[in-house]
Amino acid sequence: MLSYKGWIDGISALLCFIFAILLGLGIFFKARKLKVKLLSYMGLNISIAGFFWIVPSLDFLIVIVTGRNLVNIYHWMGIVNFMWAPLVTLLSMYIWAELMIPRRKKLVFWIFMILSIIFWFIIFLNPSDSFLISYPSNSGAELIYIFLNESYLPIMILYFIFSLASILFCGIGYLIKSFRSKGVIKRKFQWLSIGYFIFLGFPLMGTLFLSLIFEYPITIVRIGMISSFLFFYYGLREEPIKKVKEPPEKDIIIKESLFRLTQKPKQLTKEDITFHKEQKICLVCKSKLGGSNLAFICLGCAVLYCEKCVQALTNVENACWVCNKPFDESKSSKPFKDTEEESDIEVSEKKKNKN
């Protein structure tokens, strides 16, 4: 009969598996509908990560029905449990490359694709040396636990590369990028960084010291890893538009973008402008430019806009946010000025008239 510990491990694994699959698919289909490419990739990645818990979930269900654990024929349990790790890393690194170094995203993809193929080749060719499996003393009393064999260097080196790349590039990389960014972009990179630190940090903490604090550390690790998915979602979702009864005349509403802004910022720094140019991001809605998302280059300052933002701005103020050059020379231009600027201009004009 399944022990109390076995029930906790089984229920937590099954809930993690179901939650990750449903959350990932929900994010994927929502992102596809909104045409937010990176968020759809992250949704797919979350669903794939859910398969980390498929073996303990199946073992739990089999024990409930038959009273006995799964049979590990041809070492299939280790293969099915760990075959998803390279794929999760591959998608994570591709998203990172799309955000950080879009020109080299294909190179990053193929490097980790080759490493993934090597990993799969090893575990399918030599599963007996790749995994260590802990069976309960009495079949059905507890669940089966599966680990990578730390003494088998080929598999551990690859797994170390996957983990290190995720920590350095996705965790620390996004964090550093957030320090160099401002506003919405800064917050987005912070969410992504926190998500990766949680997803990778909880298993490490479970191995090092959570077992000394909690009676059931594996359950705490699973809860922590699941919570990281929410940070990924907030990092890549669109910014919601705040509903107001009477929107200001100068508000710009742009749909179907990675990030969403509704109003010109009061101040654009040189760092903001340079970042948008280098990363080929629309200055207004923060969407990536290229492919079907056509880019418009301001002839006055070379700042990039997407086609939808240019159309919206042309109808409202017809002026570049940086240099005030008209988008359409045939129309009048009304550059945006906040209330502080307008009051300063009025005061200066009054002083000139008095003099």
From TrEMBL:
Q: Does the keyword Membrane apply?
A: yes
Stretches of Basic and acidic residues bias are at 327-338
Question: Region Disordered: what ranges?
Answer: 327-355
InterPro entries noted in UniProt: Znf_FYVE_PHD
- Annotated transmembrane regions: 6-29, 41-67, 73-95, 107-125, 152-176, 196-214, 220-236
Whether Transmembrane counts among this entry's keywords is yes
Sorted keywords for this record are: Membrane, Transmembrane, Transmembrane helix
Name by which UniProt lists this protein:
Uncharacterized protein
Naturally occurring in which organism (per UniProt)? marine sediment metagenome
